[in-house]
UniProtKB/TrEMBL annotation, chain A:
<dbReference type="GO" id="GO:0005886">
    <property type="term" value="C:plasma membrane"/>
</dbReference>
<dbReference type="InterPro" id="IPR050901">
    <property type="entry name" value="BP-dep_ABC_trans_perm"/>
</dbReference>
<feature type="transmembrane region" description="Helical">
    <location>
        <begin position="113"/>
        <end position="131"/>
    </location>
</feature>
<dbReference type="Pfam" id="PF00528">
    <property type="entry name" value="BPD_transp_1"/>
</dbReference>
<feature type="domain" description="ABC transmembrane type-1">
    <location>
        <begin position="75"/>
        <end position="267"/>
    </location>
</feature>
<keyword id="KW-0812">Transmembrane</keyword>
<feature type="transmembrane region" description="Helical">
    <location>
        <begin position="243"/>
        <end position="267"/>
    </location>
</feature>
<feature type="transmembrane region" description="Helical">
    <location>
        <begin position="143"/>
        <end position="163"/>
    </location>
</feature>
<feature type="transmembrane region" description="Helical">
    <location>
        <begin position="12"/>
        <end position="33"/>
    </location>
</feature>
<feature type="transmembrane region" description="Helical">
    <location>
        <begin position="79"/>
        <end position="101"/>
    </location>
</feature>
<keyword id="KW-0813">Transport</keyword>
<keyword id="KW-1003">Cell membrane</keyword>
<comment type="similarity">
    <text>Belongs to the binding-protein-dependent transport system permease family.</text>
</comment>
<keyword id="KW-1133">Transmembrane helix</keyword>
<dbReference type="GO" id="GO:0055085">
    <property type="term" value="P:transmembrane transport"/>
</dbReference>
<dbReference type="InterPro" id="IPR000515">
    <property type="entry name" value="MetI-like"/>
</dbReference>
<keyword id="KW-0472">Membrane</keyword>
Amino acid sequence: MPRPAGKVVGQSSFYAAVVTLVVFAAFPFYWMLITTFKTDGDLYNLKSIPYWFNSPPTLEHLKYLFEDTLFVQWLSNSALIGLCVVAITLLVALPAGYGLARMPGRSGENLSIGIFVTYLVPPTLLFLPLARVVTLLGLQDSMWALVVVYPTFTIPFCTWLLMGFFKSVPREIEEAAIVDGCTVVGAFVKTVLPLSMPAILTVVIFAFTLTVQEFVYALTFISSSREKPVTLGVATDLIRGDIFYWGELMGAALISSIPVAIAYNLFLDRFISGITGGAVK
Amino acid sequence: MSAIAEAAAPRRPPRSRFTTFDRLEVLGPLFIIPAILYVVVLVGLPFLLALYYSVSAYSIFNPSWTFVGLKNFREVIDSEIFRRTLANTLIFTISAQIIGLLLGKIGAMLLMQEFPGRRLARALIVLPWAVPVSLATLAWVWMFDSLYSVINWTLVAAGLIDPAHRPQWLGQEDLAMIAVVTVHAWRLFPFGVVIFLAGFTSVPQDVLDAATIDGAGFWRRNYQIILPIIAPIIMIALIFGTVFTFTDLSVVYLLTKGGPINSTQVLGTLAFQVGILSGDVAHGAAICLFLFPFLLVAVILLLRSLRRREI
């Protein structure tokens, strides 16, 4: 769809529209950034223009965040939870996606849609009974509860993605390996998995980002500061009484969300093709 | 690759193809069982437990499993707070979807054009949807701050509001509604942009060219050619967007905690307050289950859309 050339008015209103949308989307992140580096005197001053630094930028907030709060602990909790969930997801979803892809007829497809649909079951519907399950497992107030619960939404989505991918791997490759004396499992590990690295990488990134983004289960299951993942710790523990530590809060939000945003951006197209069931390539 | 080459060189006498298929068929289901078990044990059973909670008198102070029938549901429906909550949830969901889809379509149409900085613009526009929602919402809490709100500062500087009567975005009933809808729409519209972009790119150029030659103008191309082609994709996006907003707890919890005076209470936050904070698990579960009929509709629609794309 080429744009009619030479229309200055059309041109500038086009850019005005782009800029408006970009500002609407990105301003809160600019706000996080500038708040992080402003001095308190500058932040809490109604007279000065808030959009830019009125006194020199400071690293005070970041220093406080890293030295006097549990921020580093929360970050490492999130990373550990993410890694464990990724491991569980791969262990369960890889064979499942493969098994479904190789099921005869349409039964695999139907079964996989059944598993995919559970991705629509939201934490809001399950947090009460799962709180009970977590207690039964003796995991209340522990981040291991999250390691157990998070695969409930990563497994359905990742199984679905992997099944789509395994279907595109020709059956003849693993059959050749089996003919050659491999077991079914051996053929899968030696021939299919090495070919599937791009899909596996996608699954790793998604399971990790979905896990890091989660908030509701963490809020419900965990109350000790030391056990919290970063989303929960920042949102609940950086507030002392009614006073918000905005510099620290925004710094923490920025540092923990930017890596997730970058990873997500890189794999966005695959996520879309997964969610629309491969209708869009 | 080397594994394939190795595999291709026969070392043992080949077995018959029959046993190969036989074994794949036996092992296939075994491969799937762990996934199914995980989902059944941690999604299916908890769901049944939620059902039982909702017809019991269970609370954390009195964990009794006494069956009370539909009493909890009746009490929940009779409560004025619940009715307001249900209305709020619908209002938030519908308005966020409408704004999200509109902005999503506009954004995608803009990003379909080639212009310098297009990739950067796309990356920035996708940000709200990519970052953890709880952290992004914190930025809005700060922007809506009662005293140091940058939005109010801008409005005062522009002479649009009286500095003595600054709006309390999160403290006035009507404004709090607007604030929650804004954050939901802000979070959702990048998803719309991405989906519409994917849809637009999937429309074959020759179809568009043919239509243009046949005399179809901008609007006609848009609504009679592009929209019908991308409708199934938009449908799927709408289903996911609706489910995410309808069942959301974190945005409202962090922005307003459902206040002021329950004016922004949604099913998720109310269930959290009743079921976890007050410990009345039975009533909390009953509130949550009002999400279910709605989710069922979403699942059915999703199944139909997923099938349609294959026909």
